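Hi all, posting the design record for the shared folder.

TITLE: backbone redesign
STEP: 1 of 1
STRUCTURE INPUT:
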């Protein structure tokens, strides 16, 4: 039963990882789009950029945690 539980947890984490990765990609795309290559620096939306950076940082930390949890489960499963 323990093995089945580990496999189930791993699958849940994989799904969660995909969701976090999608959200992270969305935020990084938004950040890239609001940082033009050329343009007036005064027009940058500083608060929006800062909030995106904070969200990106939180998602990166969450993603690292998920990957660590998956690695532990796979080690316990012998994969």
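Okay, here is what came back for every position:
SEQUENCE:
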């Amino acid at each position: 039963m323990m093995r089945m539980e580990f496999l189930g947890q791993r699958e849940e984490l994989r799904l969660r990882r995909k969701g976090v990765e999608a959200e992270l990609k969305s935020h990084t795309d938004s950040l890239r789009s609001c940082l033009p290559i050329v343009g007036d620096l005064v027009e940058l939306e500083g608060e929006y950029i800062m909030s995106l950076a904070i969200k990106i940082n939180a998602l990166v930390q969450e993603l690292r945690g998920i990957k660590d949890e998956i690695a532990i489960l796979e080690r316990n499963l012998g994969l």
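COMMENT: The helical segments are 2-33, 46-77.
Let me know if anyone wants the other runs.
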